[in-house]
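Morning run. Coffee first, then this:
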Amino acid sequence: MLGIFPLQEVESSPTNLAKDKWLYGAQLGLNWDRSLNSRWRFGLAYYDYRNVTGVADTVADGTNPYAATAPQFRQKGNSLFDISEPGSPTPLWALAGKYRLLNLTAKADLAHFDPYHLILDADVVKNIGYDKSGTATRMGQPGYKARTLGWHGRVAYGWPSMNAADNWQVYLGYRYLERDAVLDAFTDSDFRLGGTDAKGYYLGASYALDRNVWLAAKWMSADAIDGLPYSVDVLQVDFNARF
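And here it is:
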């Protein structure tokens, strides 16, 4: 599957030299039913974010033709630098790195204990487009270390879906996401309240009250990988209905 997605349209003018921001994506998947009791799923994806890296203004003339290279929305974690004009009292933060992501996923659904399933998930992402020297130069920090890897693992046991009364599932997972592995704007807004540079575990359970109606509870505990200590614990309780 191939796709091109607009992220931000920038109106061109003599005082606005920023370019439109785009996401180019490609995905390839494989489903393998090894037996009646074993199903495997593999996925490989490539994501190329275009024109998302900031460009610094070098002229103190009261206008910043590259102001639109700053992201309209971000959470926290990505490497940033100030692109405001020289002498400006107000910083304008933009992404310092480039982002071309390679993402590998795998899932195993093992039904040897039918009707209970043992479900294993794994996910690895690497920012292969990160330019270490360019990022360090833009930030003015020689020797700035690259942090471009993320991975996630999860194990679940119980029913694979909440499509009948009294179905249940429990799960446990761990997530490790370095600061420039992905764009922090598009990360889970619940785990450490969003962003990258996060590591930690989560656990949860679901219970079906009726067909396609279920309660779910999830506990997430996450810490910062680099920088100052910053921990966030979140308890999430949901009531779900599917029609």
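The CA atoms of residues 37 and 107 lie 14 Å apart. Good start to the day.
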